[in-house]
Design brief:
This protein is mainly beta. It has one helix spanning about 1-20; strands at about 25-30, 40-45, 50, 55-65, 65-70, 75-80, 80-85, 85-90, 95, 105-110, 110-115, 130, 135, 140-145, 150, 155, 160-165, 170, 175-180, 180-185. The radius of gyration is 18 Å and the shape is globular.
């Protein structure tokens, strides 16, 4: 009887996968900037993508499938869990847990790869990249970024690697705990 039940459950799962082409489309995020933005929150399956010119505010979201920020996109993640990592190439700003705006840290389960980002477009002196007060269960790679970068008060499991960034990293007096190699220079 257990074999028949397992077989039927497997067939239903197979039929759903075939009927839905087996792939989930990423959720496009364009909440607009604070203070009027309504954060993207709740459970999101299939990942999140931030397209050129879009402003995405994540607040209390649980994302499966990772987050991708495309050229010119802006991401602020507050108190969210991202399963599947974070990839940004050519973004305007990527801010995860920035303390300056009262944003809670986030959890990223997967690698963080941010390249060619900046110099940043958020007014008020915000860095182009901020990874603050967050737990990152994967390596962090920062490559070819053109604006100020803050990496402070994080727990990073997997190492921290920097190549060809215009600015050294700042830790705002609160260093991160990094398990693994650190190949970045922090400013004074």
């Amino acid at each position: 009887m257990k074999t028949l039940a397992g077989f039927l459950a497997g067939m239903v799962g197979f039929a759903l996968a075939v009927g839905s082409d087996g792939a989930l489309a990423a959720t496009e995020c364009n909440t607009g900037p604070p203070p009027n933005a309504v954060p993207l929150s709740g459970t999101i399956v299939g990942g999140v993508v931030v397209n050129a010119g879009d402003f995405c505010l994540l607040g209390g979201a649980t994302i499966s499938g990772g987050v991708q920020v495309n050229t010119g996109g802006i991401l602020i993640a507050c108190g969210s869990t991202i399963n599947g990592g974070l990839v940004a190439n050519g973004a305007a700003n990527v801010l995860v847990g920035p303390e300056e705006i009262g944003c809670a840290g986030s959890v990223i389960n997967g690698a963080v790869q941010i390249s060619n980002t900046g110099p940043g477009v958020i007014p008020g002196g915000a860095p182009s990249i901020s990874l603050e007060r967050s737990t990152i269960n994967g390596a962090v790679h920062l490559t070819g970024n053109r604006g100020p970068i803050v990496v402070a008060t994080d727990r990073i499991a997997g190492g921290l690697f920097c190549v060809n960034n215009t600015f050294d990293l700042e830790n705002e007096g609160s260093p991160s705990v990094v398990t693994g190699a650190i190949r970045c220079k922090f400013g004074d």
